[in-house]
Amino acid sequence: MFFDFRRLLPASQAFSLRERIRAPLGALLGIAVTAAFGALAVQQGQISPAIIAPMGASAVLLFAAPASPLAQPWSVLGGNGIAAAVGVAVTWLVPDQSLAAALAVSLAIAAMIACRCLHPPGGAVALTAVVGGPAVHDLGLSFVLWPVLGNSLLLLVSAMLYHRLTRGSYPHRQQPAVNRHATSDPAPLARIGFEPADLDEVLKDFDQYLDIDRDDLETILRRTELRSYRRRALHVTCESIMSRDVVAVGPDTSLREAHELMRRHHFRALPVTNEKAEVVGIVTQSDFLHKPRWVAGQPRIDIAQRLRLILSGATAPNDTVKDIMTAPVRTLRPETPLADAVILFAEGGLHDLPVVRESGKLAGILSQSDALVAMLQDRSAGAAPIPSPAA
Prior knowledge:
- This protein has 391 residues and is mainly alpha-helical.
- It has three domains: 15-165, no CATH class; 188-205 and 212-232, no CATH class; 238-380, CBS-domain (Roll), CATH 3.10.580.
- The protein has 15 helices and six strands.
- The chain has helices spanning 17-43, 54-64, 73-93, 97-114, 121-131, 134-137, 142-165, 196-206, 214-232, 238-241, 255-265, 285-290, 303-311, 338-348, 368-382; strands spanning 269-273, 279-284, 292-295, 298-301, 352-356, 362-367.
- The strands form three sheets. Strands 1-2 form a two-stranded antiparallel sheet.
- α2 (54-64) packs parallel to α7 (142-165) and α4 (97-114) packs antiparallel against α5.
- It is elongated, with a radius of gyration of 29 Å.
- 32% of the residues are buried.
């Protein structure tokens, strides 16, 4: 039987077309900026190279895998800097170049792991310190400052600016599950399935370095559970369970009137619609609690909120719904599966979602309570009957 060479290939990565373009373009600009500033430094009297080869490997991580723990700022600066210092020290202490090369890379890895700044290009930096020839050896410890840390810092700043300008995320920040109540209870997404301690035990047993942040891995697994529910769920749509007799308000409805409607009907949220019945926002209990100032039992827009509105380019505040409403607002379509709505509720920490038709006009509203009742009914309908014991 022939060997299946496909087994040698890594699992395919789900890169969008945007990322396929953005990553190489970022590396192009990052290396160009680093090399240009490096050349300028050399012209000012530096005797070291303008840029060293390991920066190419750092660029791959910074622009193509910015969420990797190996690509974070401390990993880049600490990893490259520590590896360079190790390489220089080994070069001084070990005359045989072959042995020095092996020791430099080995000790650099150990040092980076100990300092929590593992960065694969650091191995190449340590090797460069040994085999870089007289031009590198003559620099001594200056090699650590320039070109290693100088190049690393320039490339890092370039990456931070590039990701900011292209709406990327770097340095990587874990997006925690939303807990809008600011209590000690876990967010809704963190209450399903496994416990964090379960994941920690599995990772301990796995005992290998994973090129993914531990919290990112937990979020991925929890969202996978939600998607799994969507796949297994029966075909219930939002239209079949949404509330249709919806009380909505306009942007120019007074805060007093909107609050009275919420109190009278015991609503947690009111959709905000324009004259065409199109949903333009939503006003919630949380909006009333945090945005206006209450005077003699009536909501008023205070100075801080007025300044925020003015700075955002909004019209002059006049104590109406548009001054505190949340916009834009997440919405559902009547044909949206209930499972998709459950995912939005869990991941976004939301309680009520307007349901709109293709025209954008309000069709109804779906609450967490509606979804819960439907899920319980779904589960009851899908449960297999328990067989009776044999006589």
